Amino acid sequence: MWRNVLTLGLTMLLSACPTTGEGAPVSSAGDVVAAPNPAGADAVKADVLALMNRQAEDWTAGKLEAFCAVYADDALFVSPKGFTRGRANILARDDKRYRQDGAEMGALTFDVEEIRVTQEMAGVALKWTLTFQETPPAAGSSLVPLQRRGTT
Q1: In terms of Cα–Cα distance, which of 142, 130, 125 is closest to 10?
Q2: Taking a C-beta distance cutoff of 8 angstroms, is the pair 105, 67 a contact?
Q3: Is the pTM here over 0.70, yes or no?
């Protein structure tokens, strides 16, 4: 099981940080080099894709509690409007913005650009789109680091 430890609502380049000392994912010239790909990475990537699909389904169905359930207790949500710290605060933010203010949540889709896997973490670079009935779609890019539940 994976948990979301940080969500960035900004366009960023994903680079995994190896912990084995086998080399950095970015060269001294700034060129991106291959990230570690530990044994079982394909299974992890499949799990991560399933998680992202479930996230999109939960959001679209208006299940904010389920959507936020995968966030770590101390998750950090970063958006152009600022920072929201902690799963409970992220849920309260979304609840106010979408349920209490009556805004349409929209249908969420993800276009996963890349998934990088290390022994402890997985990182997802993706584009997201929210489509609405009454208003133009919203779209952006995010970097979503995931950590296995039960690890530090």
Answers
A1: 142
A2: no
A3: yes
